[in-house]
Amino acid sequence: PDQKRIKGAIYTEKEREQLVSNFLTDAYEKLNMTPEVQDKYTETLYDTYNKMLALRQNRNLTKREAKNESKKVFKGQENKLKEILTPEQHQKHDVLFQPIQKSVFFRIDNY
Question: DSSP assignment, residue 110?
Answer without folding.
Answer: T
